[in-house]
């Protein structure tokens, strides 16, 4: 196995662990049993990557060919099942754990897309899909308002991470530097949004216009 494959696998493990933990934290807020924790952890950890692989035509999807990933996601779900009660604020922890997964998976998704031969713009898009798909499925299944619909910057952070990585790879810069920069950008933007409540300007309602009758 080359160094590229090794690094990709490590990032995959970290991203899956982070997203699986975020899914299990949502399960704890819904007071599910251990099976529910594992199910939501797995769905969250694999959702975005599965969508990415299907869009790229990569079959079988990544987790079917790598059973160790299922063990990682399920293990994280069970760990959170036994430790979630130790956290003072589960929702705040969920936001930060999800931010780690968001940054990691945005870069991993973009890299896998580039390796598969996708155009740069498509690689950025698929990085966003990888980073946000699992969280969307998690929140919908658990009847939560999806994080991408909350006012804090979310999908923009994923796009920035993926775009930064792709741009630096095309520069070209060393792969390791591009990886670290992309992850740092994505996590910093999302972290600042959580900490400071940053959000994009919302739509402001305006009075409707009165149109005279045209007779």
Labels describing this entry:
single chain, 215 residues, mainly alpha, 8 helices, 73% helix
Structure notes:
With 215 residues, the chain is mainly alpha-helical. The chain contains eight helices and no strands. The longest helix is centred in the first third of the chain and has 27 residues, at 3-29. The protein is globular, with a radius of gyration of 19 Å.
Approximate shape = globular
Q: Provide the helix percentage.
A: over 70%
Q: Whole-number radius of gyration?
A: 19 Å
Element-level helix/strand string: HHHHHHHH
Instruction: Give the biggest sheet.
Output: none
H/I helix tally: 8
Strand percentage: under 5%
Query: What would you call the quaternary organization?
Result: single chain
Counting helices, strands and paired strands, the structural category is: mainly alpha
Distance between the termini: 77 Å
Summarize the structure in short.
The protein has 215 residues and is mostly helical.
Could you outline the blueprint of secondary structure elements for this entry?
Layout: H1 3-29, H2 34-56, H3 62-65, H4 67-83, H5 90-115, H6 120-141, H7 155-170, H8 175-196
């Amino acid at each position: 196995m080359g160094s590229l494959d090794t690094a990709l696998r490590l990032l995959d493990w970290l991203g899956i662990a982070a997203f699986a933990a975020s899914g299990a934290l949502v399960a704890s807020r819904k007071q599910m049993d251990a099976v529910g924790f594992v199910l939501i952890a797995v769905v969250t950890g694999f959702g975005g990557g599965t969508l990415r692989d299907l869009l790229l035509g990569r079959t079988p999807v990544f987790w079917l060919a790598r059973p160790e990933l299922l063990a990682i996601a399920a293990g994280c779900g069970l760990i959170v099942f036994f430790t979630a009660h130790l956290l003072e604020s589960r929702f705040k922890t969920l936001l930060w754990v999800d931010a780690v997964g968001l940054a990691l998976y945005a870069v991993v998704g973009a890299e896998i897309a580039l390796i598969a031969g996708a155009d740069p713009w498509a690689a950025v898009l698929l990085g966003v899909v990888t980073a946000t798909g699992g969280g969307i499925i998690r929140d919908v299944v658990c009847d939560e308002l999806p994080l991408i619909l909350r006012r804090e910057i979310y999908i923009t952070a994923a796009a920035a991470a993926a775009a930064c990585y792709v741009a630096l790879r095309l520069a070209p810069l060393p792969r390791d530097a591009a990886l670290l920069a992309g992850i740092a950008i994505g996590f910093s933007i999302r972290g600042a949004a959580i900490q400071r409540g940053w959000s994009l300007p919302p739509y402001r309602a305006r009075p409707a216009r009165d149109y005279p009758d045209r007779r």
